[in-house]
Amino acid sequence: MTGELFLDGIEQRAAALLPEEVHRYVRQGSRAGVTAGEATAAWDRLRFLPSVMRDVTVVDTATTLLGTETATPLAVAPTTMQRGLHPDGELAMARAVAAAGSLMVVSSNAGSTFEDIAATGVAWWLQMYVTA
């Protein structure tokens, strides 16, 4: 199954499960949806180049992201209104990210308190808007 077909299936399932206005909000992204559209094209250009004939018995993906140690080189981007998608909102995301040993960037418009998010044990940063 190609990535495109897999992602189409996820979107179709989300459309069937979520209230229409919530699905539209998530699908569009911010403002005019330009970044969401560009992200799809960027993922289409990404190619993995496998290394063959190498011992992959032990693989270590741990790294440090700006001083935060993580088990993976990935972080979860800030997403607002997560309770519209799941009753536990950011807390469910924080628990999953903590279990993966990764990093969560919490939206400045989170529906959960920062204290509750921190209590999950997740490594987290806060999204900040700097105004001039």
Which key features would you list for this structure?
single chain; 132 residues; alpha/beta; 2 domains; three-stranded parallel sheet; globular
Order of helices and strands: HHHEEEHEHE
As a whole number of angstroms, the C-alpha radius of gyration is 17 Å
Distance between the termini: 47 Å
Major sheet summary line: 3 strands, parallel
Taken as a percent bin, the fraction of beta residues is: 5-15%
Tell me the overall shape. Answer: globular
**Percentage of residues in helical conformation:** 25-40%
Widest beta sheet: strand line-up: 3-4-5
Structural class: alpha/beta
> Strand tally, please?
5
Number of domains: 2
Please tally the helical runs, counting DSSP H or I stretches of 4 or more residues: 5
Which consecutive residue ranges, at least 5 long each, have pLDDT under 50? Answer: none
Mean pLDDT: 88
